[in-house]
Specification:
Blueprint lengths: L2 E5 L4 H12 L3 E5 L9 H9 L4 E3 L6 H10 L3 E6 L6 H6 L1 H19 L5 E8 L23 H19 L3 E8 L1 E3 L18 H9 L6 E4 L11 E2 L1 E3 H16 L7 E6 L5 E2 H12 L5 E4 L8 E2 L4 H7 L7 H16 L1
Parallel strand pairs: 1-2, 1-4, 2-3, 4-5, 5-6, 6-11, 7-10, 8-13, 9-14
Antiparallel strand pairs: 9-12
Helix pairs in contact: 1-2, 1-8, 3-5, 5-6, 7-9, 7-11, 9-11
């Protein structure tokens, strides 16, 4: 079995990707410092796939521990790198924490991979690199705009570091996946989105309001130049997204990549407004959600949804599940964790 390292593998997207990797027969090693995840996620992974991945609890900011890990695991052939801080608001308040955690750790991992005869690297990037794109849908050729936050800037800088490293390291093959708005949970409801503290994404706010943990949902602005006045995003089911990581990794391992650094958008190709997402939840929920329109939130862009043609044609990957499918899984997960 080929050994693959998943950093941040107990997190929302990471844990779903571990499940998909194990389903394909890979031996998975997870690194997580559990700063925004729970070790109990390992039990959920095992219940789904019948196998618990190897787990190493360590802080990737410690360069010595990163070096020691690769010394102890010389057979790692690929890395999927999720581990990063990801709260936009917090990044504005604590920029140095974000640069240390998101950039320093990336450099340490790339240094170790550069020593190997061949290594494959998948980077968890984001559509935030596009800012408010000039036209929709957004293709990979759309210009990278000045970042709206230190978090967004770490994704831009991260891509540049990988690109620069690949130019002088022919034995390193890398793909950056720029994904849009992940949501939902595994259909088994054994793993899902479990943010520690205040959620950063819309859907957990919706489901927590539905289950009664929050009195009401705040919708930030209804005066945007969209059909219903609310912001539009591309919401992708987390299982579809996890499978995209596996497909991208397999492309590199099979040497099907024409260049040793590539970028792909990962989304559904369809935009949904905040009110449409609420409407989807109300269909699943069976009654109205308590929400209130408030003022715009600083830094929110109006519209962002992907052109997925490149991923569809070159990776052979396409999202399968609908917004309602993903919402149903999110609600099932919320009810389970509250019970």
């Amino acid at each position: 079995m080929m050994q693959i390292l998943v950093t941040g593998g107990l997190g929302f997207i990471g844990s779903h990707t571990v499940v998909e990797l194990q389903a394909k027969g890979f031996e998975v090693v997870v690194i997580d410092d559990c700063s925004n995840a729970d070790e109990k996620v390992l039990d959920g992974i095992e219940k789904i796939s019948g196998k618990k991945p190897i787990f190493e609890k360590l802080d990737l900011k410690d360069r010595g521990k990163v070096e020691d890990f690769f010394h102890r695991y010389p057979d790692v052939e690929g890395v999927i790198h999720f581990a990063a801080s990801k709260a936009v608001g917090e990044s504005v308040e604590k920029p140095l924490l974000y640069y240390e955690n998101n950039i320093g750790t990336l450099v340490y991992i790339l240094k170790e991979l550069s020593k190997k005869n061949k290594a494959s690297f998948i980077f968890s990037s984001s559509c935030t690199v596009y800012g408010q794109a000039d036209k929709m849908p957004i293709t990979e050729d759309a210009p990278v705009k000045e970042a709206e936050s230190p978090y967004g800037n770490t994704k831009q800088i991260g891509e540049e570091i990988i690109s620069d490293t690949c130019k002088v390291t022919p034995n390193l093959n890398a793909i950056a996946l720029r994904y849009f708005n992940p949501m939902g949970a595994h259909p088994s409801a054994e793993i899902g989105e479990l943010p520690i503290g205040v959620p950063q994404n819309l859907v957990p706010f919706i489901t927590r309001t539905g289950v009664g943990l929050r009195k009401e949902l705040s919708v930030f602005g209804d005066d945007y130049p969209t059909e219903d006045g609310t912001c539009i995003r591309d919401y992708i089911y987390v299982v579809d997204l996890a499978k995209a990581h596996v497909v991208a990794l397999e492309r590199l391992l099979a040497s099907k990549n024409p260049k040793n650094y590539e970028v792909f958008n990962v989304g559904t190709g369809k935009g949904s407004s905040v009110l449409e997402v609420i409407g989807s939840f109300e269909k699943v929920y069976g009654k109205k959600l308590n929400y209130r329109i408030v003022g715009r939130r600083q830094g929110d862009i109006t519209t962002a949804y992907a052109d997925t043609t490149k991923a569809n044609n070159e990776l052979g990957w396409k999202s399968i599940y609908s917004l309602d499918d993903a919402m149903e899984s999110a609600w099932k997960w919320e009810q389970k964790i509250r019970n």
